[in-house]
UniProtKB/TrEMBL annotation:
Pfam families: Fer4_10 (PF13237), NIL (PF09383). This is (Fe-S)-binding protein. Keywords: 4Fe-4S, Electron transport, Iron, Iron-sulfur, Metal-binding, Repeat, Transport. Residues 77-106, 108-137 form the 4Fe-4S ferredoxin-type domain. One of its GO terms (molecular function) is 4 iron, 4 sulfur cluster binding. It comes from the Bacteria. Transmembrane segments: none annotated. The keyword Repeat applies. PANTHER family: ADENYLYLSULFATE REDUCTASE, BETA SUBUNIT, L-ASPARTATE SEMIALDEHYDE SULFURTRANSFERASE IRON-SULFUR SUBUNIT. InterPro entries: 4Fe4S_Fe-S-bd, 4Fe4S_Fe_S_CS, ACT-like_dom_sf, Fe-S_Ferredoxin, NIL_domain.
Length: 144
């Protein structure tokens, strides 16, 4: 059985230039999909990705990441837009890296497409009315 796991990875400056994600593919037979990445050589790196593989390989791959010094957080959450709190100011659209939040041209209302959302929480940080909310989902099986 194959599972997908969303992850937030943080690389410290000492390892940011190493082929860590490549090793996940080669050594652990995992498939990855990078959803967002900011990696600067010599500085900290952040990556949001999906890993796909068997539960055993996912567990091994996550252990490898931690062993080499990558901070790993699971993306077992989703972002929800509370329509009652939203004042359609647009702050969130400027912060959203995936285009999940956008301005509807006819009405100038802020719309949210959860299918594009990577749960990076940038919109949550900038929302002045706290209309963007984090909801934690329960996971079917934990690989950590």
């Amino acid at each position: 059985m194959v599972y997908k796991k969303g992850l937030y990875l943080k690389f410290n400056p000492e390892i940011v230039d190493q082929p860590i994600v490549y090793r996940l593919v080669k050594d652990y037979d995992l498939v990855f999909n990078i959803l967002r990445a900011v990696i600067t050589p010599g500085k900290e790196g952040i990556m949001i990705l999906e890993l796909e593989g068997t539960p055993e390989k996912l567990r091994e791959g996550l252990n490898y990441l931690r062993e080499v010094g990558v901070e790993v957080k699971s993306l077992e959450q989703q972002i929800i837009k509370n329509e009652e709190k939203c004042i359609h100011c647009g702050n969130c659209t400027a912060a959203c890296p995936t285009g999940a939040l956008y301005v509807e041209k006819d009405t100038f209302y802020i719309r949210f497409n959860p299918e594009k959302c990577t749960a990076c929480e940038f919109c949550v940080a900038v929302c002045i009315t706290k209309a963007m909310e984090v909801h934690v989902e329960s996971e079917v099986e934990s690989f950590t």
